Amino acid sequence: MCHVIVTCRSMLWTLLSIVVAFAELIAFMSADWLIGKAKPSSSEDVDNRTGGSQEPYHPTLGIYGRCTRISHMQLSRRDTLCGPYAENFSEIASGFWQATAIFLAVGIMILCAVAFVSIFTMCVQSIMKKSIFNVCGLLQGIAGLFLILGLILYPAGWGCQKVISYCGPYASAYKLGDCSLGWAFYTAIGGTILTFICAVFSAQAEIATSSDKVQEEIEEGKNLICLL
């Protein structure tokens, strides 16, 4: 018989697992890993309201995508154009970034799988006599290691020609030149830290769902057990 067990700690772990997976996925897909040096406005880029030239803009560069501005001379305005600069894996700007993409993709796939499984932990607490919380916590720890490897290798690719075109001639491995780090990089770091927190907290979720109080309510014949 299936017993639906909901505790404060197990629900918090589930929600945190889902948030971490989405945060890492969004960061990986974003082009805001590096913010390039300011590009001066051209003579055609005129603000219709003030009649003056618009402020310089900052192009952004991701692991496989980028965002830049394009001018519309007839409309006297600028639009931001975002999209992948690499049509296939081999066209990613640096070998280090290719390795970063692999490690991050593996880590994110594991996190997404754990997030999906975590939804069903209210009904299923064990698989083949193994606690599903402990298994998921172990997988989250492994995913965190993949994410760390990807983030360590990422700055090593800052010396590639693509980054130099965005960040100036002084850009090199682990040196940004005229660029700055974007929100996607910080989100990836924050998500990695939360991944290890999830891995540790999974043990608390397992303890909460197998506590004596839960067992007592199961013995009383209750199918829905909610302990906050």
TrEMBL record:
It comes from the Eukaryota. The chain crosses the membrane at residues 12-35, 96-120, 132-154, 183-203. This is LHPL2 protein. It is a multi-pass membrane protein. It comes from Balaeniceps rex (Shoebill). The gene is Lhfpl2_0. GO terms for cellular component: membrane. GO terms for biological process: single fertilization. The keyword Nucleotide-binding does not apply. It is found in: Membrane. Its main location: membrane. Belongs to the LHFP family. Keywords: Fertilization, Membrane, Transmembrane, Transmembrane helix.
